[in-house]
């Protein structure tokens, strides 16, 4: 008899699992734990958690392979990658393969719990009336179309598989056609972060990934364009 959201922790270091468990439960979440990648993937599929905290270096199957397998199976569960501070490349790779977010170790528990909350909220939010009215009339460009009821995106009649974040970035930009947003704006509007730090790079990676999916020629995009030095916009002529 509980509406508590469930967070699956996939991490092989028991002391980290314990402290995550303690803090998440104190914040009102239920938790599940897996200590290797195979068990993590199995629990992700069987227990249908609301969010997954995913370590990269794991026995049996690493975090990237777990995330990739989840996305290939069609799961859109929010995934936050836990990565070591020095492994800069991991952050980008994690986002490329469909993670929603990453947090670097050692992390503050306050920050981690805040990010868990923000990522779960995004996926459970029902759009306000004004937003859905705008979305219903969402301009599409060329052969790109967006069905905001089914959360599906089509190009030339073919469904495109987007992660939740890619979808939100696309619909946000598309519902404000030709308006340029800086990466900091997008971080606040789409990622719901009140701070940005170095994380604006997340925006670039997500834009690149989105272009690879929706553009016929990602190197010469026609939908999401860059205004050099200013930001990104959805182009409608
Ligand atoms: Ca590890």
Describe the structure.
The protein has 237 residues and is α/β, with parallel strands linked by helices. The chain is built from nine helices and ten strands. It has two domains: 6-121, Response regulator (Rossmann fold); 140-234, Orthogonal Bundle (Arc Repressor Mutant, subunit A), CATH 1.10.10.10. Helix 4 runs parallel beside helix 9 and helix 8 (183-190) packs across helix 9 (200-214). Calcium ion is lined by residues 12-13, 55, 57-58.
Taking the sheet with the most strands, its summary is: 5 strands, parallel
Give the count of structural domains. Answer: 2
Q: What is the CATH homologous superfamily assignment of the largest domain?
A: Response regulator
Using only CA atoms, what is the Rg? 18 Å
Shape category: globular
Number of strands: 10
Query: Per DSSP, what share of the residues sits in E-state strands of 2 or more residues?
Result: 15-25%
**Within the largest sheet, what's the order of strands?**
2-1-3-4-5
**Helix count, DSSP H or I runs of 4 or more residues:** 9
